[in-house]
């Protein structure tokens, strides 16, 4: 007998014996559907989480040659900075999680337990989620450009409010980053707290504090603890914010970043740190098990008017406004910089930054790719999370089965996205999933599983536990009950989960940066590439684009949720009226079901004509979207297949170099016969070392020592056959192996901001030794060569000029001491700080300073007396046997033989016979006296690390 028969008031003559039999001889339900869902969920976790992470763990116990060892653990544990980074990570993550939970609770309480205007509540709910609509890679930039020495808010106030580098900057960034997640969890649980008990407590004369503790806080204890755990691990595993504002406050995520993506990638040692980051998951699993005892189920969620309290409403309203203003003020600069000519020097209004990007056909394709990946992640993520939630919250499966899903959720919390991306590289290189959209979608679903799972679990747990039993006794099967009863009640939460997955898929960078290919690049990987080449204005423009898209999606979800809330309220009112009618009352008096069955039947979410039509409308929209996306995917796949004959070129080169490559190829008959995919140096290096010959690229341009390292490890490059230019015989580059040929030489130089230097009242430096003088303390920024090979250029100059003895060590130590928190982990970091006037002096790539000066910025450069040392980037062709694209060799020859003339205008170091230095060439160009090898880099890195430890007082 279906639910409609109750609604229509029909008699139920045959149900009494069934109830009698059920009560007399209870049997254990088979739950075939739920066992099937559990099997699917388990298989997905085993294939896409357990196996890849096992490969990472195995890596932690092996050497580069594959031999088993504990040396990696011994090396990591012996470093004093490792212990310090653990303590720092635990401290700042716990502090930020506590603050984020308190602020999220305040905002959720204001929405759900006060009588502030409805419009105000909607605004709070939307604005609280705003930070998650932006990629975390821009958080550090936003903090610097807002609260730095010349930041927007600093200029409005007149002085810096606090030092943004180190603990303060990390705390601010982490709170902003994790607040939306905490809010979603707590606000979602608030919707399932029965507020009639607040009224009862008031009637009984309880004190306000007692009412608050017993009727509001007590039902949310479990959710608050889970929100704290979620927030803690989000902060604990993030590396984007520390990269910009971490300063000298080392955290574990940055230690992992330096090992995985530093100047010398070491996946094996990085795997050791990843294993240590998994250890807290054991504690979280125990906590999650304990917190299950605090879960409260309500048989019915009453819709009541809250008691009046003007003081409460005003206090919560004002506190919420202050909280949101403080949080969102950081992002105000993102709304301004895309429309400013050059921040902070030329503040004239312009549309050129946006126009330039939107006229780029590559960007259009990247944007479409991002939308597709985000939408498919949201659709399949909702289905996957819903299945997992049903297994744990709406079933009577064995406790071990349900707890296993909880345990997996806790473990996912502790897996950094960077580690997950590397794990997917290890597991799926060479597989059909490699370089497809589906590997990105799967990675996103797994990476962001924990929070949506907790949301749906809370929602399903707080629903009446007897609904399925009641439906079964009325003749409905499990699937019908799921579709007609459980899902309509969970629909608002499912919409929130859709939004959560979509937004995070749009903003994620840490995992997908390793997994994108030439045809599957997404917008955040484009941002990462722009960051590495110091295109910070474009970074803000793309961030604004992501913000607009995510706002539209969140707005649509808010609209659908609002309509759904109205329908649910009407349905509940009709339900209560229907249950009181004489016909239905007579039916129940005839049946005389047990009290539990009667209570469950009374609390059924009975579908009305209105909500059936609404559900049908929404289902139609969802189906249409799915079909459109699948068609789009088919079109993209067909396009990719049609483009199969094109040469895929991977590169870490700057925009000027890529333009020169394109001009050379187009002018020599290869127009539209290639695809260029840009990466940051670290990301491309990681893919080369991990994927080897399975790399999608047919050819690449990359830092020469990286190419050599990849060849030594993977033997992945073929000898070049079509390069006819001869290298100069008096340089280190003349010893280049046959499988690569240098494209550019990137020189280091001292970069200065003339206005900031004048304001500081210090003389213009002329050498690296000058940067060690005490008058420059706090005024310089240099790259840490452990995180960036650009720092190698400065260290090499100091080693050659002053040696590694007392004098050289003292100079480098004093430079690091003067840099303080401005010891950057990326090569473009010092230039970013100099442009923003955070410092007056930096060290970076000479051609970038030349370009800034040419644009009229107050940027100049100094060729130091110790010399301008350079690192080369080279072209190489992948050796794929019979699958090798024959055009790749010819294109490599064109880039060198025909492209070098244009490249010389930007990178003015002659490399080949017949080349002459242009007018903008440095006067002190020098080359490394020894061949550039990983061993030499390691020696200089050890020297640099020793000086850094001394400078930091260790």
From TrEMBL:
<feature type="transmembrane region" description="Helical">
    <location>
        <begin position="498"/>
        <end position="519"/>
    </location>
</feature>
<dbReference type="InterPro" id="IPR035906">
    <property type="entry name" value="MetI-like_sf"/>
</dbReference>
<feature type="domain" description="ABC transmembrane type-1">
    <location>
        <begin position="86"/>
        <end position="288"/>
    </location>
</feature>
<feature type="transmembrane region" description="Helical">
    <location>
        <begin position="539"/>
        <end position="560"/>
    </location>
</feature>
<feature type="transmembrane region" description="Helical">
    <location>
        <begin position="216"/>
        <end position="236"/>
    </location>
</feature>
<feature type="transmembrane region" description="Helical">
    <location>
        <begin position="34"/>
        <end position="58"/>
    </location>
</feature>
<feature type="transmembrane region" description="Helical">
    <location>
        <begin position="165"/>
        <end position="186"/>
    </location>
</feature>
<feature type="transmembrane region" description="Helical">
    <location>
        <begin position="616"/>
        <end position="636"/>
    </location>
</feature>
<keyword id="KW-0813">Transport</keyword>
<feature type="transmembrane region" description="Helical">
    <location>
        <begin position="436"/>
        <end position="453"/>
    </location>
</feature>
<keyword id="KW-0812">Transmembrane</keyword>
<dbReference type="Pfam" id="PF13343">
    <property type="entry name" value="SBP_bac_6"/>
</dbReference>
<feature type="transmembrane region" description="Helical">
    <location>
        <begin position="86"/>
        <end position="111"/>
    </location>
</feature>
<keyword id="KW-1133">Transmembrane helix</keyword>
<feature type="transmembrane region" description="Helical">
    <location>
        <begin position="123"/>
        <end position="145"/>
    </location>
</feature>
<feature type="transmembrane region" description="Helical">
    <location>
        <begin position="366"/>
        <end position="389"/>
    </location>
</feature>
<feature type="transmembrane region" description="Helical">
    <location>
        <begin position="270"/>
        <end position="294"/>
    </location>
</feature>
<feature type="transmembrane region" description="Helical">
    <location>
        <begin position="314"/>
        <end position="340"/>
    </location>
</feature>
<protein>
    <submittedName>
        <fullName>Extracellular solute-binding protein</fullName>
    </submittedName>
</protein>
<feature type="transmembrane region" description="Helical">
    <location>
        <begin position="410"/>
        <end position="430"/>
    </location>
</feature>
<dbReference type="Pfam" id="PF00528">
    <property type="entry name" value="BPD_transp_1"/>
</dbReference>
<comment type="similarity">
    <text>Belongs to the binding-protein-dependent transport system permease family.</text>
</comment>
<keyword id="KW-0472">Membrane</keyword>
<dbReference type="InterPro" id="IPR000515">
    <property type="entry name" value="MetI-like"/>
</dbReference>
<feature type="domain" description="ABC transmembrane type-1">
    <location>
        <begin position="367"/>
        <end position="557"/>
    </location>
</feature>
């Amino acid at each position: 007998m279906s639910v409609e028969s109750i609604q229509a008031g029909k008699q139920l003559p045959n149900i009494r014996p069934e109830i009698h039999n059920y009560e007399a001889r209870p049997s254990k339900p088979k739950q075939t559907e739920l066992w099937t869902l559990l099997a699917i969920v388990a298989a997905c976790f085993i294939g896409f989480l357990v196996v890849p992470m096992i490969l990472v763990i195995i890596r932690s116990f092996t050497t580069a040659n594959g031999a088993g060892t504990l040396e990696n653990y011994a090396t990591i544990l012996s470093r004093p900075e490792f212990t310090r980074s653990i303590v720092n990570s635990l401290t700042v993550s716990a502090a930020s999680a506590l603050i984020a939970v308190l602020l999220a609770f305040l905002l959720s309480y204001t929405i759900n337990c006060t009588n502030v205007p409805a419009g105000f509540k909607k605004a709070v709910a939307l604005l609280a989620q705003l930070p998650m609509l932006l990629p975390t890679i821009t958080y550090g930039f936003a903090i610097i450009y807002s609260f730095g020495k010349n930041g927007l808010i600093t200029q409005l106030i007149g002085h810096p409010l606090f030092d943004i580098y180190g603990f303060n900057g990390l705390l601010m960034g982490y709170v902003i980053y994790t607040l939306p997640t905490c809010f979603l969890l707590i606000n979602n649980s608030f919707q399932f707290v029965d507020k009639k008990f607040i009224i009862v407590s008031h009637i009984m004369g309880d004190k306000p504090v007692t009412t608050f503790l017993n009727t509001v806080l007590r039902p949310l204890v479990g959710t608050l603890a889970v929100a704290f755990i979620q927030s803690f691990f989000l902060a604990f595993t993030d590396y984007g914010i520390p990269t910009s504002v971490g300063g000298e406050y080392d955290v574990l995520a940055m230690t992992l970043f330096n090992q995985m993506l530093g100047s010398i990638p070491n996946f094996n040692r990085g795997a050791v740190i990843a294993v240590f980051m998994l250890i807290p998951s054991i504690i979280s699993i125990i906590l999650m098990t304990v917190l299950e005892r605090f879960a409260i189920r309500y048989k019915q969620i009453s819709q009541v008017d809250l008691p009046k309290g003007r003081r409460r409403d005003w206090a919560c309203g004002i506190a919420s406004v202050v909280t949101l203003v403080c949080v969102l003020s950081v992002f105000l600069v993102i709304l301004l910089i895309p429309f400013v000519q050059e921040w902070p020097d030329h503040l004239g209004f312009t549309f050129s930054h946006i126009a330039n990007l939107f006229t780029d056909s590559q960007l259009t394709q990247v944007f479409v790719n991002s939308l597709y990946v985000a939408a498919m992640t949201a659709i399949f993520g909702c289905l996957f999370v819903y299945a997992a939630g049903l297994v744990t919250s709406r079933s009577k499966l064995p406790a071990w089965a349900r707890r296993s899903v909880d345990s997996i959720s806790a473990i996912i919390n502790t897996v950094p996205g960077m580690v997950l991306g590397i794990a997917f590289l290890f597991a799926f290189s060479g597989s059909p999933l490699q370089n497809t959209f589906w590997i990105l979608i799967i990675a996103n679903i797994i990476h962001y599983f924990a929070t949506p799972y907790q949301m749906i679990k809370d929602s399903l747990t707080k629903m009446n536990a007897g609904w399925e039993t009641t439906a079964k006794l009325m003749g409905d099967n499990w699937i019908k009950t799921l579709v007609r009863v459980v899902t309509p009640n969970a629909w608002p939460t499912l919409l929130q989960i859709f939004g959560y997955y979509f937004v995070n898929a749009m903003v994620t960078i840490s995992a997908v940066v390793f997994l994108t290919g030439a045809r599957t690049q997404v917008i955040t990987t484009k941002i990462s590439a722009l960051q590495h080449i110091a295109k910070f204005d474009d970074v803000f423009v793309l961030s604004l684009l992501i913000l607009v898209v995510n706002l539209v999606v969140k707005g649509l979800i808010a609209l659908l949720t609002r309509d759904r809330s109205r329908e649910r309220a009407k349905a509940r009112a009709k339900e209560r009226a229907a249950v009181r009618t004489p016909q239905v009352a007579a039916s129940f008096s005839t049946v005389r079901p047990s009290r539990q069955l009667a209570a469950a039947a009374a609390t059924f979410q009975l579908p009305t004509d209105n909500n059936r039509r609404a559900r049908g409308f929404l289902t139609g929209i969802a189906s249409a979207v799915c079909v459109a996306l699948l068609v789009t995917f088919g079109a993209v796949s067909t396009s990719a297949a049609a483009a199969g004959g094109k040469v895929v070129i991977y590169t870490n080169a700057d925009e000027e170099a890529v333009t020169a490559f394109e001009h050379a190829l187009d002018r020599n008959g290869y127009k539209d016969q290639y695809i260029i995919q840009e990466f940051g140096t670290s990301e491309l290096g990681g893919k080369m070392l991990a994927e080897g010959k399975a790399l999608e690229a047919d050819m690449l341009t990359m830092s020469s020592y990286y190419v050599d390292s990849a060849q030594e490890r993977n033997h992945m490059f073929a000898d070049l056959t079509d390069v006819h230019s001869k290298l100069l015989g008096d340089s280190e580059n003349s010893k280049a192996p046959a499988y690569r040929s240098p494209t550019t030489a990137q020189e280091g130089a001292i970069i200065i901001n003339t206005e900031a230097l004048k304001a500081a009242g210090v003389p213009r430096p002329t050498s690296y030794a000058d940067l060690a003088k005490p008058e420059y303390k706090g005024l310089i920024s240099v790259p840490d060569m452990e995180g960036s090979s650009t720092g190698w250029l400065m260290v090499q100059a100091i080693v050659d000029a002053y040696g590694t003895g007392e004098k050289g060590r003292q100079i480098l130590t004093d430079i690091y001491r003067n840099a303080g928190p401005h010891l950057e982990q990326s090569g473009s970091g010092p230039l970013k700080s100099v442009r923003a006037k955070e410092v007056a002096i930096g060290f970076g790539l000479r051609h970038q300073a030349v370009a800034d000066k040419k644009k009229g910025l107050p940027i100049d450069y100094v060729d130091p007396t110790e010399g301008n040392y350079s690192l080369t980037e080279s072209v190489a062709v992948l050796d794929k046997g019979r699958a090798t694209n024959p055009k790749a060799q010819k294109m490599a020859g064109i880039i060198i033989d025909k492209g070098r003339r244009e490249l010389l205008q930007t990178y003015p170091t002659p490399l080949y016979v017949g080349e002459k230095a242009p007018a903008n060439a440095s006067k002190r160009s020098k080359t490394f006296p020894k061949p550039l090898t990983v061993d030499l880099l390691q020696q200089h890195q050890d020297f640099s690390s020793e000086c850094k430890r001394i400078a930091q007082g260790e």
